[in-house]
Amino acid sequence: MLANADEMRALVNLFHGGTKLTYSKGEFIIRPGGSPPGVFYIEEGLAKAYDITKYGEENLLIIRKSGELMGLTWAITGQDRHIIYTALAPTTVWLVSRDTFVKFMRSNPASALPVVDMITDMYRLHSERIMTLEYRTVRERLTSFLLTTARRFGEPTAAGLCIVVPLRHQDIASSISATRETTSRALAEMERKGYIQTEQSCITILDERMLHDSL
């Protein structure tokens, strides 16, 4: 990482001078067809970024967590991709205008380093998704998705590595370019083999090495 604690603190302080907003689980942060009102800093919670396919289905793009920004690509490029953002949990964000954000970056070059770190991480995540889609079978794509998501959101428990994100089967299916039915069957097969354990919307990887070796 390029940024140090002081540089990250300066960036956070910029947002703390903006508007504080809170969202309940399931509430839109950016509605369908809407444009970002500015740049968001997620102080707490989770936000799902997705679009709607021509078939009317949700296509999961990425999940943002605390300490990350939303609207960053639009703020830098000016291109609005009309991405929808929904809170996956009770979420608190801070909002500043695009002009405020850009002026701060220009006048505080060192404080742009946290943004460079975030952009690099975004590139890595999207590259990993492309690599996941290169696998031929749904089982392989699902395995890759679970391992990647666990590295980002996994929390160690007595049972294994718990992915602490409420993912629907449809979310997973859209991310790996599969149907919900096929994804559900693949998850059930992994559970029968003892690779994972599911409880409501929580997936726990029981043995990360064993799951990786199954690729």
What is the CATH C level class of the largest domain, in words?
Mainly Beta
- Total count of strands: 12
- Return the CATH topology of the largest domain: Jelly Rolls
- From the N-terminal CA to the C-terminal CA, the straight-line distance is 30 Å
Strand order of the largest sheet: 1-8-3-6
Shape field: globular
Give keywords:
215 residues, alpha+beta, 4-stranded antiparallel β-sheet, Jelly Rolls, 8 helices
Can you put this structure into words, describing what you see?
By secondary structure, the protein is α+β, with helices and mostly antiparallel strands. It has 2 domains: 5-129, Sandwich (Jelly Rolls), CATH 2.60.120; 137-213, Arc Repressor Mutant, subunit A (Orthogonal Bundle). It has helices spanning 5-16, 72-77, 98-107, 113-133, 138-153, 169-175, 180-192, 208-213, and strands at 19-23, 28-30, 39-44, 46-52, 58-65, 69-70, 84-87, 91-96, 154-156, 161-163, 196-199, 202-205. The strands form 3 sheets. It has a 4-stranded antiparallel sheet. Strand 11 (196-199) and strand 12 form a beta hairpin. Helix 4 (113-133) runs antiparallel to helix 5 and helix 6 crosses helix 7 (180-192). The chain is globular and about 55 Å long. It starts with a helix and ends with a helix.
